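hiii so my PI (J.) wants the whole complex modelled not just the main chain, which honestly fair. so below is everything: four entries, each one labled with what it is. i double checked the lines twice but i was tired so who knows lol
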Amino acid sequence: MDELDYQPNLLAGSLRKKKTGTIGLIIPDNSNMLYADISKNFEDIFFSKNYNIIVGNSAYIIKREIEHLKNLRSKMVDGILMIPASTEGEHIERIRAAGVPVVLLDRKIMGLEVDYVLPDNYQFGYIAGKYLTGLGHKDIGYIDRFQPHYHSIERKKGFKDALAEGGITFDDDNVLEGGLSYDRGAETAKKLIQKNKKITALFSFNDINALGAIRGLNDIGLKVPGDVSVMGIDDIAISSIFIPSLTTIRYPVKEMVDEASRILLDRIKQPVFKKNKEVVIKPELIIRESTSPITKT
Amino acid sequence: MDELDYQPNLLAGSLRKKKTGTIGLIIPDNSNMLYADISKNFEDIFFSKNYNIIVGNSAYIIKREIEHLKNLRSKMVDGILMIPASTEGEHIERIRAAGVPVVLLDRKIMGLEVDYVLPDNYQFGYIAGKYLTGLGHKDIGYIDRFQPHYHSIERKKGFKDALAEGGITFDDDNVLEGGLSYDRGAETAKKLIQKNKKITALFSFNDINALGAIRGLNDIGLKVPGDVSVMGIDDIAISSIFIPSLTTIRYPVKEMVDEASRILLDRIKQPVFKKNKEVVIKPELIIRESTSPITKT
DNA sequence: ATGAAAGCGCTAACAC
DNA sequence: GTGTTAGCGCTTTCAT
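here's the output for the full assembly
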């Protein structure tokens, strides 16, 4: 009857049970180290709970995200975790209305009522501002996201408040929208310094960008941290490896993934939609080599 | 009959058609940038062909790999791509015998007859040897994989041959098994230099390790490439970003993924198992800042 | 052409 | 407790 190597057809069982034991994960881009890390952490947790994961990269393209969502729904996944590609929420609302639990990570979509797990964006800015002013820096360049968004606005607000507490007024002239990439970081850092030679520190929207800034400063003969201190946000793997290693604020990947997994698993067990959850997790300062007390006067 | 937002249940169709439109991907560790890149490339290709991907991280643990394979088979995936976790092949043979097309990437498992897509490991070593001797280096440190394996042995052979062509005999004393990680790279580079002060160049098993080596050399006051040239293998994202940027031999990710996808898709269409394929793809030298002509005499 | 029915391989419900 | 059957939602086949 069974010839030793039998494996049940889970498809049939799933059809019957209306549970597939697979969950969907949609991220913008697996070659972004932060997202790769998030994805790996998810996989670990759900593997231990006997779930499989279908991953999809949206590439920040809303059409791809929509298509992935459709596929996942048709494949009857038990739940979905996603980092949204845009500020559009209608398609997400739809799949949730169809009864599929959805937990969003990283970004909030205004007007969309689902479960969220977010980093404390205000704190990202606040911690950086406090730390840099504590080192004596007064003229601080700020590299903002290319198109300011909900989260970047929060970060800037926190930064501004920290400066104010140190008696320093945030100078809008020291802000440049330098995008998120390494190359744009290099470029933007140079521009900022040329614009204002008094700058002794730079705070960037993310680590990759900050690393680019260090390279850019090096290229015009400025030493980090000797001449200019640089810090970023995320604490991706490169940041500790880079020379100089980067002072940064750790994106709480593990905590966020744990929390999101817990919520999703709960929703799967208990599909009654009570009040949505919104969990916000505090980040943590990681001091390394790229920052130092002010030396110029 | 259909209230606007109907989505078909693909489970039912799959059960009938014996085609799920999902394929399995097993990699050792998605937080390794090379594998993250491979995984992203696969996802892109199969998305465009209307497949979904179930990913699993084996974490180099054979038990996990076996479990993932079981799951994938039970979920009736149409095919499987994997980077094997070990040199064990029995469980892979079994799933293939059950009629699931399997393509292995990166490593060969001796005695296992499946389709393979591999980088040309001999060339990795040969190209490095040629380039370094071409720069005039004669005393070259070699950081080998922790436990030498099929691929690392090939690499060393190529390196040796290149040196021989330059009239240099490969010195086994210049070899240390320094593992694959950044930290081990730093440690091993220091040991090598202390062992043989005449070393002017270092070749490492992979980029992460080579980057660690640069850090290690820096820490004992040696400049790269001024005092010692360093090169690696892979060309991961960090390598072009690092200061100094790393001379390396590009792991042909895109070409390999393209080829593996093509083979897998073929096998899915045409499940008759003819002769297995073994495709070997040539890597490419990427010259950057971490290497320079010899200066010492 | 269009429509009815059988069946994919399981699980849950039901009968014994 | 054990054995049988109905049915999950599709696709495919067969009959009209």
